[in-house]
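Researcher: Re-running this chain for the archive, since the previous output was lost when a drive failed. Same request as before.
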Amino acid sequence: MEPISDALVYIVDDDAGVREALAWLLRSRRLLSESFDSAEAFDAMRQARSAPNQPCCLLLDVRMPGLSGLALFDLLLARGDLAAMPVIFLTGHADVPTAVDAVKRGAFDFYEKPFSDNALVDRIEQALAQSAAHLEQLRQRSSLQLRLQDLTERERDVMDLVVAGLPNKLIADQLDISVRTVEVHRSRVFDKMQVKSAVELANLLRTGP
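Model: Regenerated structure tokens:
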């Protein structure tokens, strides 16, 4: 799998040796990383920054002094951050049942220490791909919402009837306007929505906000 452009892997582990080894491993696969020695430090960073706007994932140790990895995961889950930032837990043997439960609640995966470097990085790349797909979906929804907001009320009326499959004559009768006026509004709708046909418009709206 090709590295995803601008992707970032967050590493949260209280063991400096683990952080450094993971950062080196990621560099060897051309992946950028940012490390934190505590869940508190990572949480402070996340709250200080806006929502993720680049593909990212989080490598999270389960057991740490202070705020545990599981407690941080619960915070991210409550904030709805997991789709944009999948979480992969790094666990000791005793933490496997906890990690399995977290996966059931939305974590992307877990790896028991010591883990296979290649298997872990392959899974990280899959998590980053999921993050990228989610962010692209959000961008598309935002773009569609802006296009919809640019429509006039009459254009919106015409669009709804076009999508419903009505021909221009029936749209004109239903809205009590001329067929020529319908044609003008229909053309403007297609231009503003950046589509070339009623089918394309219907498909766009079906995946919309």
